Batch of 4 targets.
Target 1
Amino acid sequence: MTAGTMPRWRWPAVIAHRCGGMLAPENSIEGLHRASALGCRGAEFDAMLAVCGTPVLMHDETLERTTVAQGRVDATPWQVLADTALRARDGSVSTARVPSLAMALQTCLSLGMAANIEIKPATGADQATGEAVAALAARLWPADAPWPLLLSSFSTRALAAAADTAPDLPRALLLETVAPDSLALAQQLGCVALVVERSCLTAAVIDTVHQAGLGIAIYTENHADRGQDALAAGLDALITDWPDRFLRSH
C-alpha cells in the first residue's frame, strides 16, 4: 500500500487482546464470543504450530501457564491440544479447550469480527509458522469479508515468509521499541502498519508513521482515559485486555 491509495487503517479502533482480554481464558473461542457480546468488533490472537504443523492459538512456547498440560506446543499434536483444557484468568481449570487457528477464524467470520493474527513462532520455526499461518488465513478468510484480515509479528522472518505465501494479506510489524529504522523495515516488509508497545507512543510517532502512509496501533492499553486521549490524538487503534472500557465511543 502507498499513501493515498486506501485508508491507512482498515480495522476497528478497539481490538480485544488474545481473543477476549481479561474477559475469558486467554486465546479462547469463549473470549471471542464475550468480546463480541460487548460490542467489540475486532480481536487479536496468537498463532503457533503444533508438532503436526497445525496452527493453534497459543502465546507461550510451553503449555504450563495457560493450560492444564505440560510440555512444548511444538512437540504436541493437535489431536492432544484439542482436548487440553485452558486455565481461566484466575488459574482455575475452565471448560474451554485449546482452539485451532481455523476455529478462531471461522468464529470471527460468524460473529462479524475483524481478526488480527499475531504470528508467534516457536524458536527456530519463524519461516514455517509464517508460511502455514498465511496459507491457512488466505484459504479461510473470504476476500469479501466485512474486514480484511491482518497478520502481525515481531519476527521479520515470519512476516517475510507470510508475504511470500500470501502477498495480498495485509501485514503489520510489531515493535517493543520504535527505532530510527523501524519505518524503513516495515516498508521493506510490505507492511501497512506498525503495532507498537504503548509506552513508545508519542504525537511525533503518530505523525511520522502517518506521513509514511502507514497505520499505527498500540498494545496493550488498559487505561481508559489515556487510551481515549491517544485515539483522539490520531492513534488508529489500540489492543486492550478490557475492551469494554473503550467501546462507549468506538
Note: The chain has one domain: 14-245.
Target 2
Amino acid sequence: MSNIKSQLSCKFLPIDEVSVKLLRDMYRVFSRYYANTDLDTFVHDMSKKSGIFLLREKMTGRIVGFSTWTEMPLAYGKRKAIGVFSGDTILESDYWGNKALQQAFAMRMLKLKISRPGTRVFWLLISKGYKTYLLLANNFLRHYPNYASRNQRLVRVVDQYCEKLFPDYYDRDNRVLDFGDDSQHLKDDVADITASMRDANAKIRFFDDANPGWRRGTELPCVGEVCTRTLLGFFHKQMTSRRSQAAH
C-alpha cells in the first residue's frame, strides 16, 4: 500500500452521462466527510453542473472522490471573460495528496484557454476548508483573496459570480458566503486547523482569519486567473515531482 496515492484514475463526464448509480456512489463518499447532507439536495445540486471529474481506484473501479465543473460568462472591465466554477470537491482521506484530479482539471483548463484566444479565463471556487484555498494560493499567480493583499482588481470578479449564483447568501461586507447554521460543512475531524498550523503557514492563517466561520459552513469565495504562466508552472511542478519520485 506504499504507493496507494498513485493508484487513481480521473475522468471527466458531462452531467447528462452521470447515472443515478454514479450519483449514489458519489454521495456515499460525500456524506462521510460533510455534515447536514441529504441525497435529494445532493442530486439537485449536481443537476446544475456542466460535468464532473470522477476519481476511481484503478484496481477496483471504486469511486473515491469527485469534483464539479460549471462554465459561466463573466465581464472583466469592458472585456468578456469566462469563469469555471468548482463546487464541492471531495477525496477519501487515504488518497489525500494524490494529484490525479489536479492534473485532469489543469488539462481541461488548458484546452478551454486554447479554445478561447484573447478571452480571460478564471477559476471560481468557494472554500469550506483550507485545503481548497491552498490549491488556489499555491498554484495561481494571480488570485483573490490573497494573503499578501495582491490582485485587488479580482474582487470585482468575486462579487460578480457570488451575486449571480448566491445572491441571498453573499455577505459583501465581509466577502463570505453564509448559508445558515444548517448548511453543509466539513465534519469536525476533517481538515481542522490547529494553532501550530496557523503559526507555520501564513496562507492557512489567512484563510482562518478571512473565513472565521468555516467550521459551521461559511465559505470563502475565491478566484484565480488562468494564464499561460500559471499552467506552465503547474505542469512543471508535476514533472519535477514525478522525476523525484522515480529517483527514489
Note: The chain has a mean pLDDT of 87.
Target 3
Amino acid sequence: MPNPLTIALTAPGMMGAGIGARLAQHGCRVIVPLEDRSQASRDRAKRAGMQHAPWEELGQADMILSVVSPEHAEATAELIAVNNPGSRALFADLNAITPDRARRIQTIVEGAGMRFADGGIIGPPPGNGVDPVVYLSGAAAADAGGLRAYGLRTEVLHGPVGEASALKLSYAGITKGLAALGATMMLAAARAGVEEQLMAELAESQPGLSQGFARSIPGMLPKSGRWVSEMHEIAAFIGEGQPEHGIYRAVAQLYERLWDAHGCDGEEAEVLRELTGGR
C-alpha cells in the first residue's frame, strides 16, 4: 500500500465525487470545499468519503484536482491561487478546456507557487466496474500519473501542457458530436414524418450506428445542459479561422435546447426517447 495522500477536489459533482470515492477507497484523505453547496452535493460528498475543507486549506493538500464545468475552470484556479499563496501542491486541471485555457491556468497556479499538470478525463465517473482514463501532460504529468497507485487509471503523455486538453476535446468532439448529429437528423425526420423508416433503415444498414445512438442519445439528454460550455470549448479549439468551428457553436445551441426540453418533458426530448428506446 503506498503512503496515503491528501487530495483536494474542487467540487463534488458526479465526476468529482466518483474520483473522490475511488481515491478514498484506496486510502487517500479527500477534501473538498462545501460552502454554498446544495444539500444534494453535500450528501454526495459524504457518500464518497470526502471531507469538507475551506478554499484556503486546499493548498495544504499534496495534490489539487480541478473538476468543474469548463466555464468555471479559470475562476476556480484563480480562487485557489489567491487563497493559497506559497502552496507547493500539484494542481492538475482535469477539465474539458482548450489548450490555451490550460496554459492560462498554468500561469495562474504557478504564480502562487504550485506545480501544474494538464489533464483530460475520457469516460464516465469511476464506479460499478467503470474506469475512465485520466490523460496528463506537462512537466508534472508523471507525478500526477502516480494516482494510478490509488485506483485511478492514468495515462501520461509526453508532450507539453495543452496536449491532454487537445486530446480530450478531440475525442469529445467526435463522441458528443455524433450524438448531436444523430439527434438532429432524427428530429428532422420526425418533422417530415419519416422517423420510423429512418430508424428501421439505420438498424438494417448501419447497425453499429443504430446501437450506438440507442446508448448515447438517451444518456445525452440529462447531461446536455452540462455539455453546452464544452461544445463552445471545442469550437474555440478548432479555431474561428476554420469554418467547421461553427458546427460546434450550433451543437451548443442544440444541447441547450434539448436540455430545456428534457427538463420540461418537451416534445423533442420525448421524440428522441421514443426513437432510441430510452423511455
Note: The CA atoms of residues 28 and 165 lie 26 Å apart.
Target 4
Amino acid sequence: MCTGYAYLIKELCYFANIESKIIDGYGRSIISNIEKLDKPNHSWNAVKLDNKWYLCDATWSSGFTSAEKIFVTEYNDGYFLTDPILFAKNHYPLEKKWLLNTTLITSNFNAPPLVYGETFKHKILPVTPEKIDITIKKEEVVTFSFKSLKNANKEEVSLVEYTRNNEHAF
C-alpha cells in the first residue's frame, strides 16, 4: 500500500512541477524493525522545494492500523515536510543520504524509542532516552525529555507503554 501512496505523491509532484523521489527503506513499528533493521518494508517520498529536500509519508499521514488490524482514517499533516531527525525515529532509508541530516548519515541506527502520530502532529522530538531498550534497577529514575520543534502552547504529554497485547498510558 505504501508504494502506491509514494507513486501518487510522485505523480502529483510531477504535475505540479516539483522534483520528487520515492524512498525505500525501513518503517519502524511495534511489530517490525524494532531493535534492529531486519527487512525493508516501507516507501515514502522526498520532495524538493526552493532547492531543499524534505521528507513526507502520505501512507502514515492517512491513518493507522489498530491493534485489531482495522484501518483507522486519521489525517495527520505532521508527516509532511517533517524535520529529518524526527522522521528518522521511525523511518530509515536504504540509502543513508535520504536521512537528509549529516549527523544522522554518519551515525549508525540506534533503535530510538518509537514515536507516532501525535508526536509528528505536534512536532515533538524525543531527546532522552536515546534507545528503546534500557535496563534499570529498582527505584532508579528514568528521565524522559522532549523538544518542541514549533512554537506551541503548553500541552499535556502522555507516555504510553505498549506490550504485545496491551497499551498502558501513564
Note: The longest helix spans residues 2-15.
